[in-house]
Amino acid sequence: MSEFDLIARHFWRPTQGQSGVLLGNGDDCALLAPAPGMALAVSCDMLVAGRHFLPDVDPQALGHKALAVNLSDLAAMGARPLACTLALALPSVPDEAWLAGLARGLLALADAHGCALVGGDTTAGPLNLCLTVLGEVPPAHASRRSAAQPGDDVWVSGALGEARLGLALLRGELDLQGPGTEAAREHLLRPQPRVALGLALRGLVHAAVDVSDGLLADLGHILAAAGVAAQVDVDALLTHAVPPAVRALPPATALTYALAGGDDYELVFTADPAQREAVLAAARRAGTPVARIGRIVPGAPAAHPLADGAGRVQLVDGGGAPYTLPAGVRLAGFDHFATIEP
């Protein structure tokens, strides 16, 4: 099967009539037209076999996740998806059934979010998926990381630590059964990008980022970019933003998963306290739970906006006193260049 046969069989589809797409697959470039007054939001993520997913992963789940992690970036910016491209490296003899499953998972999520697949590339090589997503957002409502302000509330969406629990179950690190374990596996394999929430929060949020590498690491990106610090109420986090299956784990494990587990693809964002009711109303419209877990406080400017800002987070209890972590908590977020744990 040639490169072009592969594309035609699994990934080509007509894009006529899709919002913002003038020309899709089949030419040297796609042509997109954001709505008047909109800025183009662009993000790119790569998933590498052995680094980001296990070799025996269900291909339909992998196709879903490959696009979901990119749509999550658009959600953090408050952008509506327009289109995506896929660069795919495959073993020299592609597995037809595996490819069909990958395409089904990716295209089903693309259809759900009105995100047209408008091009890409394929080649032989170690298994690797690299997607670029494009969306549109009013420039004044784009939730930049650098816009966090002292006094802001810190919010998170959904359930933190659930994907890390799912990974532990798949790896055999934990032998658990019962409520919450299947949801944890599903959260890991098929994360749901919070696009609807990102759109509902337009104009309410100062700064936002998606939780891909762990809460502390990703909130730290906001803090470094804005030159501020944060206090995170661990009691509120555990009560309102961590699922029961994670809370039931030994305390050190539960806190490791909640604070540094990664792969949840929830949103952490900041907003003026005057917007609390509006934030909750937006979350209800989006059908996504949110929890207020802390506040932004003054901090020294960072040496660089991309510096590691996790150290700018102070963990406190419900009364505002420093929170004492139990022995064994590991707070390092995911590092793409670190040695993979067995």
Structure description:
The protein is α+β, with helices and mostly antiparallel strands and 342 residues long. The protein has two domains: 3-140, 60s Ribosomal Protein L30, Chain: A, CATH 3.30.1330.10; 144-316, Phosphoribosyl-aminoimidazole Synthetase, Chain A, domain 2. 33% of the residues lie in helices and 23% in strands. The chain has eleven helices and twelve strands. It has helices spanning 3-10, 59-77, 96-112, 162-171, 181-189, 195-200, 215-226, 234-240, 244-247, 251-260, 276-286, and strands at 21-23, 31-32, 39-48, 80-90, 116-124, 128-137, 153-157, 207-211, 228-233, 266-271, 290-298, 313-316. The strands form three sheets. Strands 8-10-7-11-9-12 form a six-stranded mixed beta sheet, with helices on both faces. The protein has a four-stranded mixed beta sheet with strand order 3-6-4-5, with helices on one face. Strands 1-2 form a two-stranded antiparallel sheet. Strand 1 (21-23) and strand 2 (31-32) form a beta hairpin. Helix 2 packs parallel to helix 3 (96-112). The longest helix is centred in the N-terminal third of the chain and has 19 residues, at 59-77. Residues 335-342 have low confidence and may be disordered. GO terms for molecular function: ATP binding; magnesium ion binding; thiamine-phosphate kinase activity. Catalyzes the ATP-dependent phosphorylation of thiamine-monophosphate (TMP) to form thiamine-pyrophosphate (TPP), the active form of vitamin B1. Residues 149-299 form the PurM-like C-terminal domain. Keywords: ATP-binding, Kinase, Magnesium, Metal-binding, Nucleotide-binding, Thiamine biosynthesis, Transferase. It catalyses: thiamine phosphate + ATP = thiamine diphosphate + ADP.
